Amino acid sequence: MRVLKSHAVAIVPLILLPIIITHFMRDPEVDWRIKVISPMIKSFFYTCGMFKGGSFSRTCASIAQIPVRTTNDDYDGIRTIDIQIPNYHTELWKSHTNGIPARVFLPSKSLQSDCTDSKLPLILFFHGGGYAICSTKNLVYDSLLRMLARRMNVVIMSVDYSLAPEYPFPAALYDVCSSFQYVNDLSNSTMRNKWEATYADHIDFNRVIVVGDSAGANLAYRVAFLARDHEVPLYPSYVFDPSAFNTHPLDVDIKYQILLFPGTGALKTKDDLEKAYYLDSAVIDFFWSSSMGDLNETETEYINTVVDFEFMYRQRKQKGLPDAMIVSGSRDPLHRDAQQFAKQMSDEGVNVTMRMYNSSHAFHLLQFLEESKDVYDLIENVLLDRNLTGNYRCKAQF
Q1: I need a labelling partner for 176 at 20 to 30 A (CA). Which of 184, 202, 231, 291 fits?
Q2: Mean pLDDT of all residues in the chain?
Q3: How does DSSP assign 297-320, residue by residue?
Q4: What is the Cα–Cα distance from 377 to 293, expressed in whole angstroms?
Q5: Please, what is the Cα angle at 206 between 212 and 90, to 5 degrees?
Q6: Which helix (H) or strand (E) holds 326?
Q7: Which residue intervals of the chain are DSSP H helices?
Q8: In this prediction, what percent of the chain has a pLDDT beyond 90?
Q9: Domains in the chain with CATH codes
Q10: What is the pLDDT of residues 111-169, one digit of tens each?
């Protein structure tokens, strides 16, 4: 029996070796580190039941939501503050009744007395995670947003919107609209309390940018679309019936939108799935079905307008939207959505910067990749060209 066991142990590597070699030899243009991390992410999805027909475990998935502590010191040039955004829609959707959690990233050097002559642009950020997992306070997002705030010299407000399946659509939409309404209210200095003034006094509300990745990119676009007409949804009838407009006036304009890996997977093909890393059809279907809850096909069309653009309130298309940057990866099963999205926006007269990389979905979260560094350069350059970065004289050097 011992001999058989020892032989079995010896045979296992021989069986796995061709699989491992094949895995790493495919797609030579894709960074090898993506190939190493991809099975780990996919294993996480399946272990936590994040696949079609799976039994989703919030306890398991909460690994992606473990927060990093805020910092009041200046060890990396960024001060972070956790805040609660008022939920303007509690009478409609019982999520975050005590406020919507968010984290503010402040470049510390820009708060010094010799740098207070110029206020900083604001990035309103919405994280990815299929509407079901992640947090902008976890290690990956906290590190990413610190780097962007420091590099661009901007204030970032990242929003932890309600997650599915506990809070399906439209909870996330209401939360991100509440966050923009909050920014609008902060722009009026008479409406700020003493605590809010510690960060709001440093914001230039004439330079607001919305940024999101994956599911967050879809939400960022939603906010930009609604803000274009100075409206936010106050009733479900507005969301599902374009003819019903109950508006809350807004004073803040969005100057730019950065949409990283947007899409729902509606345009994916079998070939796309075969080339994809860690996102397969079962995982995509889980995220979509859990986020939509009990909504019918007509109602889900609203959130799916990232693909079905002609539904864009039927008569109200994308003209007049702020300029946009869209990033995707050729090994992302959502990349056709992103390409179609960019085309439709461009056809409607929106100035779109589109970049496609030979990489996976959401590779920008891995800061050590060369493609990720190129994305950060691209973001910095487009914001610089539009005067949407802070005063570089006050930029922290690390």
Answers
A1: 202
A2: 81
A3: HHHHHHHGGGT-GGGTTTT--STT
A4: 38
A5: 55
A6: strand 323-329
A7: 2-25, 32-47, 58-61, 139-152, 171-186, 194-200, 215-228, 236-240, 270-275, 281-292, 297-303, 335-347, 370-385
A8: 46
A9: 47-394 (3.40.50.1820)
A10: 665 665 578 999 999 999 999 999 989 999 999 999 999 999 999 999 999 999 998 87
